[in-house]
Structures are given as C-alpha cells and as structure tokens.
Amino acid sequence: MMEDASRYPLSLFHLEVSFILYRDRNNKTIMSMKKEERLVIEVNNLVKRYGNHTAVDHLSFKIEKGKIYGFLGPNGAGKSTTMNMITGYIAPTEGEVLIDGIDIMDEPELAKKNIGYLPEIPPLYPDLRVREYLSFVADLKKVPKKERDIEVHKIMSKTKTLDVSERLIKHLSKGYKQRVGLAGAMIGNPDILILDEPTVGLDPSQIIEMRELIRELSKNHTVLLSSHIMQEISAVCDEIIIINEGKMITKDTPENITKKMVDTNGVHIIVKGDKTKLKEALRTVSGIKNVSYDNEKDNDNDNENETIGLTIYCAEDEDIRVELFYALAKAECPVIELNKLDTSLEDAFLALTRGGSKQYGGRKLKKLKSGHKNEKENLSEGDIEQQDINNDEQSNFEKTDEERQVKTEENSDVRGGEE
Predict the structure, then answer these.
(1) Which helix (H) or strand (E) element contains residue 240?
(2) Cα(278)–Cα(308) distance, rounded to whole angstroms?
(3) Taking the CB of residue 211, how many other CB atoms lie within 10 A of it?
(4) Per the count of CB atoms within 10 A, which of 123, 292, 343, 373 is most buried?
C-alpha cells in the first residue's frame, strides 16, 4: 500500500532528476519528473484582511527544500500574520498555501505533519518537566507510543536539553525555554521548521548557540525564520524574503540584496608610500575609472613613511582587488587596509522598506561603507543630502521597545491580528 507521496517523494533514479509520485485530490497517482530540489512551500496571492485593514496584500513566494530563509519586514509588515497562515493557525481571506503540494486549507492535518512551528512566545506548560512536556507534544503529533521515548530523547539530544530534562519548565532560563519550544516543533521530524523570532530575549552567547543549532537543523530541514537582528539573518540565511505593508519587496541572497543597493563599484585602500610610486602602480591596473583621495594633502604626499587613503572606482561587476594588490606590492607600496565599497544589510533593509532602490522602483543608496573617516568629503552635494536623509530615516526607525509597544497597543483595535 503506497503512502501519500506528497510527503515522501520517491526517487526512482539517483540522477540529476527524480521521478516523484504524488496523489491528487481524486486519490489518483501522478508521476512527475523534477529536479532533486523541490518546492516545499508555495504561497500564492495570499491576502488577509481585518475589517478595512489589509495585513497581507496578495503576497506570493516559493521556498525550496534544504535552505534557510530569513523573513524580514518592519513592525506591522505582516510577517507573523503570514507565518500563521502558512502554518494553518489562521485562514487567509484570499489565496492559497501549498505545503509539499498540499493545500493547507483543504487537507490541514496532512499538510501540518510536514510543519514544525515555534511562535515568538513558545507554547510551554510551566508546571511540566521538560521530558513530560515533549512526551505530551509527541502524543499530540501522533508519534507511535513504542517510538515516543526514543524520539523525545533524540530531539533533546539535538537541542541540548538533556541536562534539564527532569527540571520544571518554569525554572528554566529564557534560552532553555526557547530550546524546549524548538524541541517541541521538531517532534515528529517535520520537513519544514517555521521559527518566529527564535532569538528574541536571548543574551549574546545564547544567540550564538541558537544560530549554530539552526545551521545544524538545516542539514535535515527547511527553515523559515523571522528576525529583526540583521547579523543573525546575514550569518545564517541562504535567502532573504523582505515584505512591507503586507507586500513582497524582494527575495534574494543577502549578498545580492546589498549589491543591488549600491550603484558604485570600487575599493577603499590605505597604503604606505609616495604618490609617484602609487600613481605609477595604479596606471598598470585595468578597469579603474576614477580615483579620489581621502585628504587633499595625500595627493601631494611624497613621504614614503606616511600613509595615503584613497577610493578607487571601477566598472560595474568588475573586481580589481587581486590585480591592485599585486601592482602595489610590485611598486613597494604596502597595503595597510583594503575594503570593497559596500552597504550593510541593515542599510539595504531600511532603503527597501522605505522605497529606496531603483532595482525595486525607488532609488539606490548613495551612502557607501568604505571604512574611512572623511568619506563625506568625497561625496557630491546631492550625495551628502541623500546620506543625511538616510541617517535621519534610520534614527527615526530606531525606536525603543517601549515606544513600539505603546504604538502597538494604540492600534490593536484597528489591526486585529496584525503583528
């Protein structure tokens, strides 16, 4: 008797392609030939309205198996609402969510077998011991009784909660409570783990531990996580989905997102040597379009013991760092520092969620992180004005948690289930 193949794809040949068997809604077996990597989540034109307020507005994206996806957006963007609809916790107003090809509204029990969900506040029972709680979750998820103890022990080992297995949950630290919540999501070995702010409230060491755990889990699970910590997203995620006001802004790798936000390519270097040797070395490097010194006096520097800082601009998609390094070494101008002109993921996020990229219908960032102190002196008047605007927007965005909480409470009656 064949099990439902939408959950257990059957690879008939171990080649670049696989034949995968599915059962459709009429219980007929369908065989399709697909690449080894398959879609595990499909969100199609998802809409969620609360009265006149639209929390999610025709959102569509696809998630492939075996990757870690970051889900980003400002407060009120619709992240938690979207996650709740993906997990079947709330129903969409319009659109559909497919989990391994199964519509979660048509066959919720079958679809939810593939999902492990950790909400922002883990649904723990404080008066239960850790092992008792996980056994209870295993019972809810219909793990066979004879396999339950083995399953719970294995999950506690993976999440490093064995040493607190007999302690009451209410006596655990915040970090251990998050681990227990994650262990509950992993019970039943779901293909997909959806984690809403998994590191919120954790100290730096706990954040690092949770980050390493998520990386380890990605070897056997597809992970979708939301977070406001940009370092965490850039360090852990293979791709990032950014939404704002319930709409899709972009879906790409962290490197590509930051790259698209900068319309100038080049490097900033600090070297030791005189300008004559330096200029001769730069003439041998192909692809250089312009050179700008950090200080005017550097342009007239003839002292070999002094350092010179300069920004070198080159053609788009061209990397001159290797050629530049060898040219300067040959000219006996040692490189003290070399940084590629770039923008941070945080700057890209702020610009994208406030209409700041030509790539997505706005304007690109002018502020470049080249690492030198006198960067503003090398910008044109218009660039300086744009940099000041970006700085003002960032300062306005960085509100305290208390201010955000007050604003959330004031709008709670209107927003309903919005974050």
Answers:
(1) strand 239-244
(2) 9
(3) 18
(4) 343
